[in-house]
Amino acid sequence: MNEMKFRTILIWIGWCVVVVSILSIAISIYSQILLQAELNKIADDRLLVPMTLRLIGSLFSIIESLALAALCFFAAHTISPLWIKHSPNVFD
């Protein structure tokens, strides 16, 4: 029973991270669309560098979120049975 609680917690954390990363992708795409619309109005080359840096930063954030979710799922399915096997009274 303890193992199932631990796995459930890790899986829920993983799903929360997945949802947050999907929201991050949506917000990033929306902000890039708005920024591109502003660039089309202004047509100034000085805004191109901040837009590129913002896009790179949002991509790294998305990759980091997905990696954290993958780590939670990996821990839930691989590491947790070994850890609980060696310390059975974790949740008691």
Produce the secondary structure layout.
Blueprint lengths: L1 H41 L5 H39 L6
Helix pairs in contact: 1-2
Labels describing this entry:
92 residues; elongated; 2 helices; mainly alpha
Structural features, described:
- The chain has 92 residues and is mainly alpha-helical.
- The chain has one domain.
- It is built from two helices and no strands.
- The longest helix has 41 residues.
- It starts with a helix and ends in a 6-residue tail after the last helix.
- The relative contact order is 0.20.
Q: Number of DSSP helices?
A: 2
Shape: elongated
Number of domains: 1
Percent strand: under 5%
The chain-level mean pLDDT equals: 70
State the distance separating the first and last CA atoms: 10 Å
Q: Percent helix among the residues?
A: over 70%
Gyration radius, rounded: 20 Å
Biggest sheet architecture: none
Element-by-element helix/strand order: HH
Structural class call reads mainly alpha
- Quantity of strands, as a count: 0
Residue windows where pLDDT falls under 50 for at least 5 positions: none
Task: Describe this structure in a few short sentences.
The chain has 92 residues and is mainly α. 87% of the residues lie in helices and 0% in strands. It is built from 2 helices and no strands.
